[in-house]
Amino acid sequence: MIIKKKEGAVKRAPDGILKYGRRKNTLDYYWKAPGAVRYSYIPKKNRKFAAALAQKSYDEKVLRLARQEEELISKLIKTCEADAIDGAYDNCPEGRKLLIEPVRPSDDEFREEWNKQPSCLLGFGENDPEFYTKRGERVRSKSEVLIANTLYGYGVDYLFECEIRLPGYGTANPDFFVLDIKNRRTIIWEHLGKMGDPAYVERNLRKINGYLKLGYIIGETLILTFESESQPISTAVIENTVKHYFL
Predict the structure, then answer these.
(1) Cα Rg for the chain, rounded, in angstroms?
(2) Same domain, residue pair 240 and 137
(3) Which CATH number is 130's domain given?
(4) Is residue 13 part of a domain?
(5) What is residue 83's predicted lDDT score, i.e. its pLDDT?
């Protein structure tokens, strides 16, 4: 975040170099333009220009240090084995595993337990259109088929319309509970497919506020995708979303 912020600040900053000197009880500031031989005095009325040059010098230093930190962190991540602790159990002979209680379940065990959550489907009306995923489950729209099939294609575990209680809203059945196995958490994915319907938008705004009150964070633990009749969702958007959050 610091790198991104300071890169923009340095790019927008004025060119040149600042120096200052003390004369009695006052500070005088001088500016040297690119290619210039001498410094030019900066009058007091242009103090904002001097401040911008000083800020640029500071930002350049912070940017350099932040990039160094980022490089060190990247090297550390590459050096350390992210799953070393889990590997201490996984690499044990089967006979020993029977006698050992690991510090946490394996990914496969966690995934198996997560998938035991009950899916509380709302049910379908007699005249509702029928849409089925590759897993053979019935969903409510073509877009939900695309989302489910993309998750399934990448081996990402999901559940359809599980029940959740939301403050100020009541019972909700999110389109998808999706397992973020890397961080061992559930991410809710709501696809809002009728954005041209004011009543639908109003109802879903209440639901989204309920998620936020419960502690879900948009873009972190709450994924929102949108479409209307005139603006259908792109398969590329769905695929990029899956890759970003779950792969």
Answers:
(1) 28
(2) yes
(3) 3.40.960
(4) yes
(5) 67
Total structural domains in the chain?
2
Q: Going by C-beta distance under 8 Å and a sequence separation of 6 or more, which residues neighbour residue 106?
A: 86, 89, 90
Specify the long-range contacts of residues 24-31, CB closer than 8 Å, at least 24 apart: none
Euclidean distance between CA atoms 47 and 26, whole angstroms: 13
Q: Which residue has the higher pLDDT, 1 or 103?
A: 1
Show the beta-strand stretches assigned E in the chain. 17-23, 26-32, 40-42, 131-132, 138-139, 158-160, 164-166, 170-172, 176-180, 185-192, 222-226
Q: How many residues does the chain have?
A: 247
Residue 49: domain span: 2-79
Q: How far is CA 31 from CA 21, 62, 224, in A?
A: 12, 21, 50
Q: What is residue 23's three-state secondary structure?
A: strand
What are the pLDDT digits (tens) for 20-57?
998 888 889 999 999 999 999 999 899 999 999 999 99
Confidence at residue 81, expressed as pLDDT on a 0 to 100 scale: 64
pLDDT at 215: 94
Q: Give the bridge partners for 130, in sequence order.
A: none
Residue 101 has pLDDT above 90, yes or no: no
Whether 105 maps to a domain, the answer reads no
Q: Within 13 Å of residue 109, how many CA atoms lie on the same side as its CB? A: 9
Say yes or no: 148 and 228 in one domain.
yes
Q: Categorize the per-residue pLDDT at 125 as very low, low, confident or very high, splitting at 50, 70 and 90.
A: confident
The answer to whether residues 12 and 66 belong to one domain is: yes
**Does 16 reside within a domain?**
yes
